[in-house]
Amino acid sequence: MINKNLCLQLSQFGSASIYEAQGATGALDSGIKPLSHTMQVFGPAFTVDIRPGDNLMLHYALLHIQPGDVLVVDAKGFIEAGPWGDILTEQAMVKGVAGLVINGAVRDAHTIKSLGFPVFCRGISIKGTAKKQPGKVNVPLCMGDTVIHPGDYLFGDEDGVVVVPKQDLSTVLQATQSREHTEEMYREEIQQGANTVDLLGLRDTLKQLNLA
């Protein structure tokens, strides 16, 4: 319950702010984007490792995933088939799944968007998949240079997706709140005539580069 409350508070901030606040770490690569720019996702990760071009393990995962979980799928970046579509979306919504983040493609994009189910993916493909290959659930996944452990928290919006280790939620929340407070002061000072060079202490760097 504590982590759920912390997650909800942290979800009020943008993914970029969370990423910066936790030391510029945890971002998934920029190729993973929301199907619609208004989509937002947050919650603990239920991880699934699947074979490219096969979605058997996604059907299996939906038997075990819990309400509020984010389904995080490593399809190895394969985008020439969409292992996720409208029927799986319907089932995920009935189960209370918070959203999907997939290192791969989806299809039935129009229907998914009309249903309002948050999907973050690498691409869209008209092609379907087989349902034969084994895989793994609730194992660590690596997407780009970011490792996602089962139960880690994901926060995604138009800017992208950031992963926060579950044990760091409280610390990252405090750091994000502090960063937002500082930026709000910057905005107020800029309205009063201040500039970002002075606010960020960049004059010495500019002088070193003969840009003073």
UniProtKB/TrEMBL annotation:
Coiled coil: none annotated. Pfam families: RraA-like. This is Putative 4-hydroxy-4-methyl-2-oxoglutarate aldolase. Mg(2+) binds at residue 108. Substrate binds at residues 85-88, 107. The keyword Magnesium applies. It comes from the Bacteria. It comes from Nitrincola lacisaponensis. NCBIfam families: PRK09262.1.
